[in-house]
Write a structure and sequence with these properties.
This protein is of the alpha+beta class. The protein has seven helices and 13 strands. Helices cover 29% and strands 22% of the residues. Strands 1, 2, 3, 5, 10, 12 and 13 form a seven-stranded antiparallel sheet that branches. The protein has a four-stranded antiparallel sheet with strand order 4-11-6-9. Helix 2 crosses helix 4 and helix 3 crosses helix 4. It is globular.
Length: 243
């Protein structure tokens, strides 16, 4: 079981995020990868070798409705719940703040295909969308190595100290803060390896990027709230997780 150092805990408090290298093992992802492929194969009538199979990407690009169906279906499977409640993840949360945590029922496995711009989540605080209390922690977990080419996250260190900020500017169906709200901060990109876990504060400004590579980028977004604090019904039930 991996433990956080004092420096990592201090970074989370001061900067609003902490990167935990190699927190998860390849075997931890296998059940949900198998389930994803099963769902894709049921709906396509075709067999795919892996999540990064070029034929799967090409099929989804031509059949966006099926891609959306798989995206919605995987969120309701036992496998995604098992991963989100993984003892390593819940242990890291307890090390950040020693109190009981719950998992927000709305769990996401993003499917970011190359050069798709419509769903990119530009600069925002999760609190604007997730609502509820501002102690919620997001775990962002890629299923492959990520960098600027395929769309690692950008973060604004220490921006959580601003508190909740309005998001008045519409970009498609997304909303972002006014540009001057971010002028005091310098963004950094968070390169990650598969198995790394990025934990960040609900008020931390962060941004997605367009996947400019030739393969799909997959990433989990799990959100956890301290038990007893308010949460938004739109995020589903709060599921207690064992530590």
């Amino acid at each position: 079981m991996q433990t956080l150092t004092a420096e990592q805990r201090q970074q989370y408090e001061a900067q609003g995020y902490v990167l935990v290298p190699r927190a998860l093992e390849p075997a931890d992802f296998k059940p949900i990868e198998r389930q994803f492929l099963r769902l894709a194969e049921e709906r396509s009538g075709r067999r795919f070798e892996s999540l990064h199979d070029l034929e799967l990407l090409q099929f989804f690009q031509k059949n966006m409705r099926i891609e959306s169906d798989v995206y919605n279906a995987i969120r309701r499977t036992p496998e995604i719940l098992d991963l989100a409640a993984h003892r390593q993840l819940t242990s890291l949360l307890r090390q950040l703040v020693d109190r009981p945590w719950g998992l927000l029922e709305k769990m996401v496995l993003r499917i970011d295909m190359p050069n798709m711009e419509a769903e990119v989540a530009y600069w925002h605080q999760d609190h604007f969308y997730v609502k509820g209390n501002d102690r919620i922690v997001t775990a962002w977990i890629p299923l492959q190595d990520v960098n600027n080419e395929n769309g690692c996250l950008l973060v604004q260190p220490a921006s959580h100290n601003m508190g909740s900020v309005s998001h008045p500017v519409a970009i498609g169906k997304r909303h972002v803060p006014a540009a001057e709200a971010l002028d005091a901060f310098r963004p950094i990109s968070v390169d990650m390896h598969s198995g790394d876990v990025l934990l960040f504060h609900a008020l931390l400004f962060h941004s997605g990027q367009i996947n400019r590579s030739g393969t799909t980028r997959y990433s989990f977004q799990f959100r956890y709230s301290p038990i007893g604090l308010p949460t938004d019904p739109g995020m589903g039930n709060v599921l207690p997780v064992e530590i």
